[in-house]
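Anyone able to model this chain together with flavin-adenine dinucleotide?
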Amino acid sequence: MSNSTRPHAGPRTTTSVLVSGAGIAGTALAYWLNRYGFHVTVVERAPSLRGGGQAVDIRGTALTVVERMGLLEEVRARRTGLLGMSVVGADGREVCRTTEWTASGGPIGGPDVEILRDELAELIAGAEKGDGGPGTAGPGVEYRFDDAIETLVQHPAGVDVRFRGGTERSFDLVVGADGLHSNTRRLVFGPEADYLHPIGTYLAGWSAPNHLGLDRWEIAHRDADDPNWFCMAMTVRDNSELRVFVGFHTDEPMDDVLPRDPARQRALVAERSAHARWELPRLLRAMGEPDAAFHYDVVAQIRMERWSEDRVVLLGDAGYCCSPATGQGTSVALTAAYVLAGELRAADGDHRAAFPAYERRLRDHVAANQAILELTGDRRARADMITNLGQADPRMEAVFQAALAFDLPDY
Ligand SMILES: Cc1cc2nc3c(=O)[nH]c(=O)nc-3n(C[C@H](O)[C@H](O)[C@H](O)COP(=O)(O)OP(=O)(O)OC[C@H]3O[C@@H](n4cnc5c(N)ncnc54)[C@H](O)[C@@H]3O)c2cc1C
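re: yes, here you go
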């Protein structure tokens, strides 16, 4: 059912919600809460919506959510539109190619949408302006960029928040949508190490000029001498740009490189890729450019026994990151934002009813999507999957089944 024009506006609630993080989960939740008439503030650590990252996939239930947001057409118009992919070996020679499949986006020509992560966040944030789109009850979303929650104290009437910038304010509810390394989770539920399950893989992504002259194409590069390393490059934005990512597996503890120190992260990626030939020297030079939108992180899942504590609740990667290895983080975040907002609306802002209902509805869906990681097998098999050219890969079938296995409620 296409619901973008369905009148959602009800009486405006007085409930105020602070959302930490303006990624996919945070912006999508803000969209829905604003549409339902909640007072929404989003605090984002970065100075603006964060650029960078690769393309992400929207499939299954999440496509219906996007349709209900009235964004399906725009999202489809911005799809990466890749025509196929090749695998090149260490000497740069093409080993094989297909026009039926890409490693990043799956089957070509299907209903799923592959879109740049940053473009999706921009689209959602643009849609949530309180300018009276059909059914919009909210006053618009207040964004506080370049800021973060420093402390939060819950009490029976609300949550008192002190921001890093010094401001102090009270909110009825706080949502932690601040990603894999969630600050909200740390403040309320304790240290990250209690919930983070790394798989020994690290991913770095950045943008580079399309000096390869590729036309809507993806290249996966493997080096037979180092099966624990791979590189991918794909064209984006009308072939004007490449998005590159390098992945490597290691058993060495890498935690000390994780804190936000891009210079050390870049040096590590360059070191790990030093053996590589093909176009790597040039791509690695591009990684060093200031506008390369460099992003580096561990591939990990977040597993928690509960997602809320009184007036604070976690959403998306913060509470149940599936990891990029499943390809499902964005779809799960979109569906979860819709459900959390819907349950809050159904309970008229009463978190005691809404938060358990949100968790009940989503637990199995999250578990099915997290389980995809197990299906992808060991490290080598995962890397093989990433550069797999077989469109009938049964592991991808599991992705689709998990993605579709959710009965989206109407709110
Ligand atoms: C830069 C970037 C690149 C990514 N690239 C890929 C990719 O290539 N492939 C893939 O599958 N997934 C990628 N992801 C993860 C993917 O976006 C998520 O798995 C998925 O979309 C769920 O989104 P989320 O909103 O829960 O988390 P995220 O998209 O990670 O968003 C979290 C947001 O919270 C903000 N934040 C973090 N800490 C704080 C804080 N203390 N206070 C306030 N705000 C904070 C972050 O800046 C970010 O905007 C990337 C994430 C980021 C941030």
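Residues 1-9, 130-134 have pLDDT under 50 and may be disordered.
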